[in-house]
Amino acid sequence: MSATELIRALDKQRRDELLPTTLEPLDALLGGGLPRGKIVELAGRRSAGRFSIVLAALAAATSAGEAAVLVDLGDHLDPQILEANGADLSRLLWIRPQKMKDAVHAVEMIAATGFQLVVLDAGLHPIRGKRVAEASWVRLARTAEAQGTAMLISTPYPMTGTASEIVLDAQRVRPKWTGSGKSPRVLAGMTVDIAVTKYRHEREGRSARLEFITLEAATR
Amino acid sequence: MTRLACLIVPMFPLAARLRSEPELLSEALAIVEGNGNNAHVVAATRRARKKGIHAGLSLAQSRSIMPKLIARGRDAECERTAQEALLEVAETFSPRIEDASDGVIFVDISGTERHFPSERDLAAAAIRACDGIGLPARCGIASSKLAARIAAELPQSPTIVNRGGEAEFLAPLPLVRLSPQLDTAATLQRWGLTSIGELAQLPESEVATRLGELGRELHYAARGIDPRPLIPRALPPDFREGMDLEWPLVALDPFLFIANAALDRLTKRLEIQGFACRRLEMTLTLEPDGYDARAIDLPAPTRDVKTMLTLIRLDLEKKAPGAPVMGFAFVAIPDRPRRAQLSLFGPSALSPEKLATTIARLISMLGEDRVGMPRTVDGHLPDRYAIGAYNPPPPPDLSRPPKKSRGLVAARVFRPPLPIEVVRNDEAFVAIKSDGDINGDVRVSSGPWEAEEGWWKEAPNFREYWDVELEKGTYRIYQNDGWFADARYD
Q: Do the Cβ atoms of A47 and B354 come within 8 Å?
């Protein structure tokens, strides 16, 4: 085998690998992790655990030495929480656009640079700036495929249409509190249900339950 | 024996101008020097020369021959940058070069035999390289500067003078090739001398007696003896491109159009030397007088013209020069482009140049404080953050598994915090209202958690935080001269 063939084979192998989020129930739903070269859309309304999943995915990728990007449309990131989650912040590029159009443009530019994980968090409802055309998502899907980039799009409602490989629907169950009666209450965590509403070439309708805990509960 | 190559660009003022404005190549163009009635032609394009325009004619005479003649003044900036570009091409053949100005370069080619099959191939390669930067050059190779220069001036380029054959090469050439001073030329003509060989045959002492030291030097030159050594030039500290404009520019787009061509030339020169641009300095010459100088720092060394143009556009839009622009000069501060080692068994490395270019474009699109690496900040208030320049470490040599996530609840921070109205009774919170979508009865609340920063100041930042669960979400709220929601648990 020549060096060129070796490089090509390794590149193909790398593309076939999945990028785990290390949230076991979610990785099981996705067949092992976020697929490279594909768009995974995560839709969910208020307090549905979308941002917790985004931070877990970023922490997993950067801790494995991969370069990752967070395009944070709502400017919501708290670097302290992300670092506490195990992320290597030096490998993370944080982009804070103010309009959806700029965010999609930024994702397209940055994916073409060769980042292995690109996350677009569209923030809260209503989304800042006008809705982008579906053709933009198709273009993003092509860029992701060409570069072998795993792309996670977190939105308050489904937007990517036919461009996404997988669409996950996040539903809040309830936050967990410690203490009862007259004793002081403390927020301890959150339970989130995730359902697969679209999965090309795979069975839809499967679901999983994710448990998240607060930093205070984790350090207690 | 030292071997020297001479690169010469015929009609250098014209060639330098055509390098900046290549669309004039097929036009009848004359380069003039001087103003008003003193303006005279120094060089003209082939189309103009065919009509009888030649160096030395006044502009008025030229216009009477050819009314549609396009006249351009000599542009010192164009000529300077063309000379720099020529020097850089020469440096790709040998590190020892001499700048003889006005489109003439001497190159010490001793020791380059292993790189080129013959001196003729080297000369042909040098001519091709000069053509590549838009300067049609001729090349001559000999063992002395004088013979190399005269060989380069001959029309059948390249001309190679054999080792030790300088006198033989010069002998049949007319004396004017030695460029003797005008009065000396007249004297030699009276003596009946026409060729260099005839002068070389005269006794040296007799020539020196009659013409002085100048005559002795001329006699040496005629015998192919040139004692002048090559004087190597020091490396230039910067790369410069620019031009004086015929008409003042007041709009941005025409300026960027011309700047694009200049930056393209600049980046090509940087590429030849293996450099990229780390900082771009721009000087605009304003009408009627004055300058506007500014510098654009690039996030990382790059040679991407589009990025530089975007940054120039943004800079000029942010602060216009305030007067029409009569000329411009770009100076690139060079730096070695960043390189990344290809990893076979680890995560893919990012191309540093591609990354720098993309980040520069993102910064120009979104603003400097909106792209970078997130950084933690020491403090007590939970919404603190900082952003720094993105300069990721190289990826590990071998792929490693990710660390298991702690599965922490993320707080989606609101920047700025949203003002809310809190309804509470003596014991607990009852409801929260706001202009946005944070509304509803409070199901569970916990707090207060006190946080204070700057206690040593007159007005310390003291806040009391609560976590509250509403029907449509769980929020972090605080009180500090009013109530605010600063995050949603998501």
A: no
